[in-house]
Amino acid sequence: MSGAPHPAVSRVRKAVRDRLTDPSWPPGEVFVAVSGGADSLALAEAAAFTGRRLQRAVRGLIVDHGLQDGSARIAATAAKKAKELGLDSAEVLTVEVGEAGGPEAAARKARYAALRSAVPPGALILLGHTRDDQAETVLLGLGRGSGPRSVSGMRPLDPPWGRPLLDVPRETTVAACAALGVTPWEDPHNIEARFTRVRLRHEVLPLLEDVLNGGVAAALARTAAQLREDSEALDTLARGIIAENGQLDVGDLEPLPSALRRRALRRWLLDAGVRELTDAHLRSVDALVGRWRGQGGVWLPGDLVARRAHGRLSVLPAPTTKGD
Ligand SMILES: Nc1ncnc2c1ncn2[C@@H]1O[C@H](COP(=O)(O)OP(=O)(O)OP(=O)(O)O)[C@@H](O)[C@H]1O
Q1: Residue ranges for the binding site?
Q2: Which pLDDT value is given to residue 324?
Q3: What CATH number did the domain enclosing 78 receive?
Q4: Does the residue 235 lie in any domain?
Q5: Which of 34, 67, 130 to mutate to test the pocket of ligand 1 (most atoms within 8 A of CB)?
Q6: Which sites bind ATP (predicted)?
Q7: Binding residues for ATP
Q8: Over the stretch 3-27, which tens digit does the pLDDT of each residue have?
Q9: Residue 63's beta-bridge partner residues?
Q10: CATH number (domain holding residue 255)
Q11: In which domain, by residue range, is 267 found?
């Protein structure tokens, strides 16, 4: 490209530079998850451009889910385009997709696991989620009555994941690709109206934009950002309740408003290694605090038990036979 870059290209590059030079972002190696769509190709170019200036290598990772005919070819094409856009390398990861939770969720789970295990500890993996993706996430959460964590949308930094384009509209990534002379891959699922998110994108959001005279995606993204700020403040308070040795004192938890108490419990359970914690588990552990005194236990995923004894809560490996 000669002369000044196209404004769309500049906007994407600026978004990436602002994040990669943000001191709160990790300084380690940078990877870009490239699907071959407009968002991640524009992201790849901007990350490569910024990486050269910052003298940081930027590598591409492309996941081939093997779910549709020609997926290997689509992945190879995405890798080629990513290299042409300036990435130092582009590697295709082939994954086995399970069946649990439906095809989309299973593919996402396999994809995130493969990306995570392909990078060294401390590395950053950039994802191409845009402001429109954020708006869809928030709207979907609201419509489903989800809790504040879901309605507050995706976080820009959630190591190893980094999402530098959360303030960039999708039309900008599309315009950037056009200006760069690269043709993005169109995921056929993005057009099939049977997916809820797709209908939200193509039917609900345009209608809302029309009724409210525009600016809806930006407004939803702002709402999400405000909720995230509130939520982070609550998290800080919740963390303060957990003792340095990782123990929780029932006496400290009892007087708290339930929102703060559950925050503390969630954080504590996650720190104690409980994975796939559901709201039902959390409610049961919360009941250990509130309803009665004395001893008690709650079975948790991963063969763990939350136990109340002598006014303290602890997480322990479950005994081999159930017999509480
Ligand atoms: N096959 C893939 N290979 C590598 N990266 C991918 C692939 N598919 C998606 N990504 C990354 O994830 C980002 C988001 O893509 P998409 O919205 O399709 O994924 P998702 O994980 O289903 O989204 P969400 O997290 O919103 O549910 C892309 O911009 C890209 O960075």
Answers
A1: 35-40
A2: 46
A3: 3.40.50.620
A4: no
A5: 34
A6: 35-40
A7: 35-40
A8: 899 999 999 999 999 999 999 999 9
A9: 93
A10: 3.30.465.60
A11: 244-317
Give residue 2's pLDDT.
Answer: 63
Residue with tokens 């002369």: 3
Cα–ligand 1 centroid distance for 262 (angstroms): 31
Q: Is residue 112 assigned to a domain? A: yes
Question: How many domains does the chain contain in total?
Answer: 2
34 lines ligand 1 (CB under 6 A): yes
Same domain, 289 and 188: no
124-177 pLDDT tens trace: 999 999 999 999 999 999 999 888 778 999 999 999 999 999 999 999 999 999
Mutate to test the pocket of ligand 1, among 126, 127, 134 (most ligand atoms within 8 A of CB): 127
For 243-304, give the DSSP string: -TTS-EEHHHHTTS-HHHHHHHHHHHHHHTT--S--HHHHHHHHHHHHT--S-EEEEETTTE
- Output the six-digit token pair for 186: 């169109």
Greater pLDDT, 277 or 30: 30
Token output for 227: 């909720």
Q: Domain for residue 254, yes or no?
A: yes
